[in-house]
Amino acid sequence: MNCLLVAATAFEIAPFIQHYRNSDVPFYVDIQVDVAITGVGLMATTYNLQRQIQVKKPDLIIQAGIAGCFDLSVALGTVFAVKKDTVADLGVTEKSTFHSLFDMGFVKPNHPPYKGGWLVNPGLHLLKKNSLKKVAGVSVNQITTSKQAINHYTAKYKPVVESMEGAALHYVSLMENIPFMQLRGVSNYVGERNKKKWNIKDSVANLNNELIRLLNSL
Ligand SMILES: O=C(O)c1cccc(C(=O)CC[C@H]2O[C@@H](n3cnc4c(=O)[nH]cnc43)[C@H](O)[C@@H]2O)c1
To answer: I need a labelling partner for 212 at 20 to 30 A (CA). Which of 20, 60, 110, 175 fits?
Structure first.
């Protein structure tokens, strides 16, 4: 099996790379893992994913990264698998009300690869092999900081996590018919600007442990 592992930045998957390099035993006997750092954001991720796929079409794409969390009851460091994602800030804000591309009628909510306005991961059988909770995610071009935006996204999408790349993975993989997984370790609560209150260390460590566990279970 050819697996393409992608992350926005190298530090997010550094422990996995280290583990992979230091392993004496070929613990992924039938799995070949290619790694690509796609850059931060939807545009860079889309471009770099597409380039990788053109060179070698993988059997599975895994995107691993940190994320903000909308749910304050979730402990920082928790790792989730994202079952559906969408670009939350693609549209127009008019008279303080946001209208998505679907609201505006530019795209039909069920126009492929969308289902009800979401980019849904159909590979639930892959997710079942691990214990990760499956949640809804949103992707943004502009990191959410205001209470107003948090309330708006919560009401409209009921997301648990926010990233800047997830929807690109879902869109490209669905269009190319390639199974995929998006794993997100919660580094911060959405809107929290004080980096001292983030927990990047645990989110990256737990994320990479789950990544190793997932690859061992395939
Ligand atoms: O400096 C800031 O205010 C700031 C806010 C959020 C994230 C960053 C980063 O440097 C990480 C960007 C990277 O991590 C993902 N990420 C992590 N937390 C969030 C979030 O709350 N909202 C959106 N994305 C987040 C994202 O996927 C990027 O790849 C700096």
So the answer is: 175
